[in-house]
Amino acid sequence: MKAIKKYFALAAAAALSLAFTACSDKDDYTPATAEANDQVYFDVNGSTKIGVETDQTSFAVPVYRIKTADAITVPLTVSDSTGFLSVPTSVKFDANQSMTTLDITYDPSKMEYDVFKKVSITIDPAYQTAYGLSTYTFEVGAYSPYELMGTGTWIDDYFGFESKVEIYQNKVDRNTYRVMYPFAENDYASVTPSDYLQFTVLKKGENVNGVDVNLDDLVYFTKTNTGYVNGTYNCDVWYYHPSDLINRYTTLGFDNSTTWAGSYVNEYMSDATTPGEVVLSPFAFMPSYGDGGAGWNYTTSELVHIYMPGFTPKDYSLECTFLGTNDNPLVGIGYAYLTVKKGSDVSLVSCYAVKADADLDEILYAIDTDEIVGVDADANGEVQVPIPGSEAGYYKVIVVAFKEEVDDEGNKALIRANYQIVPVLYKYNAVAIGTYSEGVKDLTGKEEAQFTSVYNSIIYQSNDDSTAYAVMPWFADGALMFNLDAETSSVTIAKSWSNYFTDYGEIFGMDLASLGAPSYYDAANKTFHFRLGYMVDAGAYSYQEDTFTLTSEDVDEDGTSDGARKKANKKGRKLQRFNNKFNGIKLMKPTRLK
Predict the structure, then answer these.
(1) Are residues 384 and 436 located together in one domain of the fold?
(2) Which of 60, 173, 388, 476 stands the most exposed, by the fewest C-beta atoms within 10 Å?
(3) What domain range is 137 assigned to?
(4) pLDDT score of 239
């Protein structure tokens, strides 16, 4: 900073030097004409928005003058459309008085909270000065009164931080709240964020931005600057409610309040009216980008959780342990065995086995609407889940925690409160242990691949097809499925599901042989070279080469499997935080591999 100040000081000195050397005795100079009047003016730094108190009836505007010898009365021209102000049409100065006040009165009973109206006051031309502000234009109104509820908690999964925040409740509209300085502890804020995020609990039938609300307990929140500047686009990132982007994104259905369902009250306090836990799913928007702004749609992602003062979060946690699989050839059914430890507020745990490529949103919808039936965990948390079909492959067990809710008529219902995905390889046996290295090379010519991580993992072989293998855990506790040709050492990667979900869907691995980058096994170094694309249906995140090097074929080394899985889970959580911090991993455009 000192160096910068020094630089500008030198630059200023140089500029002055040039200015002085440009003058000469021959240059003409005409001094400014002295003004003969009193030179009355307003403060050029006067507030352009004045908030008044409803328990008072007046406020003062300062007025100044240069010549102070005489007592004068200065006529004023007033433009006032407020309907609640009374602005004098003149202002008086006593002799030798350089500053006076224009006392403006108002009628609080005629004001609406948070509605500000414009006023202009102009000094009579005979008293004006060319060197001061002659017309003062400002907005005036009354801010809604708020009272402190206490200290709550702000949990932001987009930027990956948690902080204590003061929360205020509106004294007039009891459904409106303000979370003060929610981004004060955001390490990624480089500009000043908004002082508060304001949210309102909506009721069915209300109207927001011209849209009738068709669901209870939805939450609207005001546009809020996060303080984060996106490095790629050099624009501030704001949190927007989808209803504020109806005209910007006409194809996303934001003109239907059903699409706002990602922002809602998840739990109420014991009085059943004050929110306890509020969930927000913002659109991460850059209003200053291009013509009309741009951003990332996280309106279903539940990125922000707000715990209100005095609220104790319910414990809907799940801790799942996969024990293994078993095949019953007599009935042609296989089973996955798990134990589940549930949180104290979980009423029921039920498990559903699906194929790895099943659409998660569709499965969860089917669970919520009772279209599919799960297997309930017993009193000890043990559960035996039938695997659909009898083919060897990669499956997922969806473990769902249900909470019990009672409606206004006393009817009880089980509502999904939490879920976990447990990856399962069926009819596969562990054959080797090794080290998986992501991104040893980017295949598009970049210096570094998109995903780079190193972790322990296990290679499995199919019972039904000796050429079929899987590496698990892979990426975020998924499974990389492939076939190995023992004669040619060529490897063909099957579509492989990562168990890592983005707003574009689950990331999957794809073989790149058709693009000129085949995978292979290097027997001399006991290393698989996986050349694969990390994909979603919308496009590619990365084309890169990963390696898996065998370190042991002794699969009886207890603890290695658990350790590898734990490391992969930890890595997955780190990827989630990385994804959130940097607004999602950018999709690549189609490109030729190198």
Answers:
(1) no
(2) 60
(3) 40-141
(4) 97
